[in-house]
Amino acid sequence: MGRLSALFDPESVGVVGATDREGSVGRAILENLQETYDGEIVPVNPSREQVLGLECYSNATAAPAIDLAVLVVPPDVVLEVLDDLGETDTRAVVVVTAGFAESGEKGARREQRLRERAERYDLEIVGPNSLGVMSTVNGLNATFGPDSPREGAISFLSQSGAFVTAVLEWADEQRIGFQHVVSLGNKADLDETDFLREWGDDPGTDVIIGYLEGIDDGTAFLETARAVTEDTPIVLVKAGRTDAGAQAASSHTGAIAGSERAYETGLEQAGVIRAHSVQELFDFARALSGLPEPDTDGVAVVTNAGGPGVLATDAVGDSRLEMASLSAQTTDGLAEVLPDEATRYNPVDVIGDADADRFGDALETVLEDDAVGAAIVVSAPTAVLGYDRLAETIIEKHEDSGKPIVTCLMGGERARAAEQVLRGFGVPNFFDPTRAVAGLEALTRYREIRERTIDEPTTFDVDRERARAVLARAKRYSDNRLGVESMKLLEAYGIPTPAGEVVSDPERASEVARAIEGDVVMKIVSPDVSHKSDIGGVRVGVSDEEVASAYEDIVARVRTYQPDSTILGVQIQELVEMEDSTETIVGMNRDPQFGPLVVFGLGGIFVETLEDTAVRVAPIGESEARDMIDEIQASPLLRGARGREPAHIDAITETIQRLSQLVVDFPSILELDVNPLVVAPEGVQAIDLSLTVDTDRLEGDEP
C-alpha cells in the first residue's frame, strides 16, 4: 500500500466513542472489528473501563498506539479528539459522525476547522459523515454496516454510505468480492482522487469502481485517472448535477457544455468507463477483473438456442462490437465437428441436442479464427447437456486460447452452480445475453483507453498583456460582458479575424470602410442586444457610399426597439466570402468541477437547433482538437463531402488549440463564444465574439 496504508492495513484500530449500548453505532463498529479484524482493537471512552470484554481508555493520548482512529463521538467533540490524536502517532482517521457541512452553516464552519486540523497534524481523514472503511486483506471492517464483504480484487468507493451497504449485500448474493471499500462521506480531506491514486498502485486491486455525486477537483481527478487507467480500469456510476447549468443562459456554449455534458466529457477524457446502474457497474467490473483484453472487436456467438442466440447477435449490433466474419477455414472446420443441421456461420448454432463436447469443439474452432477477438457461449438447459461439464469445457478453451469468453448459461440452480465454477476461473456468467455483450464491450472500451495517445498541448507565441488589457474593459460594464468590440482579444492569441474597427460616428465609419476592399458588414455594438439581426442591428454588403447613412439607420433602429440599451458604436467589418464556407462555433464554458470546457461544432443559426458539437476539457492537444472535428456529424461537410472543396482542417485544429490556451491562461474568462467561426478551404475567420469575465479574478490571472 501507499500513503494510505494506515487506513487499509493498520496494525491497530482505535474506536473513539466505543460503547456496549445496544443499537449504538459505537457498538456496531466494535463488534464488526471483533468479528474479523486481525490486529489490535483499542476502545476509547471516558465513561467506560471495559467495552465488550476489551480494556477501554479515557482518551487517545492515554491509549496504546493507534494506527487508525474511528470517531463516533458528538460533532462538537470531534475537533477535541483530533487535537488529542495530533499529539500521538496516529495518521489515519475515519470520522463517522455527521453534523458537518451537510447540516447547514454551523456545520460547514465546523467542517472547515476539521480540515484545518487535518493539515495541521498531517492526518489522513475520511469523512465526516462516513460509514467507514473495509479491507479484506486483514479482515478490517471499521464500519457500522451489517456485513463484511467477500474477498476479491475490486476496490470500491462511494459518496453514499447507504449505497455501500446495499451494494455489499447484493454483491454477496452474487458472490462478488472486494479488496478495499471506503465510504467517502463529506470528503473534507480525502476525496475520490486520493483513493484512485492509492488503488492504482495497489497490486491487489484489479478494478476500481465507485458511486459519485460530485467530483471536487476535476483537473486533479482527470490527471490522476489518466495515469491510473494505464494499468487499472475505473468504472463509475455518476449521479447528480453540477452547478454549471445555472450559467447556461448567458451563452450558446454554456447551454451546450453545462451540467451533465461536463461530467460526460470529463469522465471520458479521464479514461473512466461510466456505468448507468449498479448492475452495469458490476457487469463491467466482473469482465474487467477476470478477462484479457480482446485483440479485435469481432465476437463469435456459440449457442444451442436460436432465440437467445439472436438476442446476443442484436446486442452485438447495438454495441461498438461487431459479429466476426468467420473465414472459410473456420466454417469448414465447423462442418467437420457439427451435424449437418447445425449453423456453421456466426452465430454458430450447435442445435438443441448438443452436449458439452460439441460446444467445446465449436468454441475451439471459432477461437482459432483471427477475426474473433472474443466469444459468447449462450446455452439453454437440456437433458443431454450437463452444465458442470460445460463449465469445465469453457474454462479449458478460455485458458488455451487466451481470448476472453463470457457465458450466458440460462436456467436456475444448475446454472448457478456452474456460474460459481466459471467465476473461480475469471469467466463471468450472465442470464441475459445483452449483459454478456455489455461485459465484452467494457473490455474493448478499456483496450481503447489504454491504446489512445494524448499529446501535450502546443504553447503558441501570444500577446498576453494585450489580451489582459482587452479583458479589463469588462470592468466598465455592470454585467461584465464583452462583445465584438473585443475582437483584438482573439488577434492577441493568433486567431484570424476580418479587417475592421468599432466606430462611434458616421464619418469614422466611412473612413474605415474605404480602407477595406469591397463592401462591408455593419453591426451594432451593445452589451444589451443579444440578437442583433432581429431588430435591424446588422447590415451586410454595404458599399462605401452607403456606410454613413447605414450607420444612422442601424443606431436609430436599435434606439426604437431597445431605447434603454447602451450603444458602444457600430462595427465595420470586412465582408467574408461564404461560398464553399461553413459556419461553425468554437467556445468555452467554465465548469465548477472540471474547469474550462471547449466546444466546437456547427455554428451560426444552427447551433441551438442542431446541437452538433464536441466538447473537451482544456488544455487540448492537437490530436484531441482533430478528434473534436471528426466527432461532429457535420464533419463530412468540412472534409469535402459530395464534391465540396475541403475546409482548412489544420486551421480549425490550430484555432481550437489557441482558444484552449487562451481560456487556460485566463481563468477569469467564464464563458466565451466565437460564433460564427467561418471555415473555408483557405482558412478560418472569427466573425463574432461574446464573453463574460470575472473581473475580480482577472487580477489574479498570471501575467
From TrEMBL:
It comes from the Archaea. The lineage of its organism: Archaea, Methanobacteriati, Methanobacteriota, Stenosarchaea group, Halobacteria. GO terms for molecular function: acetate-CoA ligase (ADP-forming) activity; ATP binding; transferase activity. Keywords: ATP-binding, Ligase, Nucleotide-binding, Transferase. Residues 7-100 form the CoA-binding domain. SUPFAM superfamilies: Glutathione synthetase ATP-binding domain-like, NAD(P)-binding Rossmann-fold domains, Succinyl-CoA synthetase domains. InterPro entries: Acyl-CoA_Synth/Transferase, ATP_grasp_subdomain_1, CoA-bd, Ligase_CoA_dom, NAD(P)-bd_dom_sf, Succ_CoA_lig_flav_dom, Succinyl-CoA_synth-like. This is acetate--CoA ligase (ADP-forming). The keyword ATP-binding applies. It catalyses: acetate + ATP + CoA = acetyl-CoA + ADP + phosphate. Its EC number is 6.2.1.13. It holds the Pfam family Succ_CoA_lig. The keyword Transferase applies.
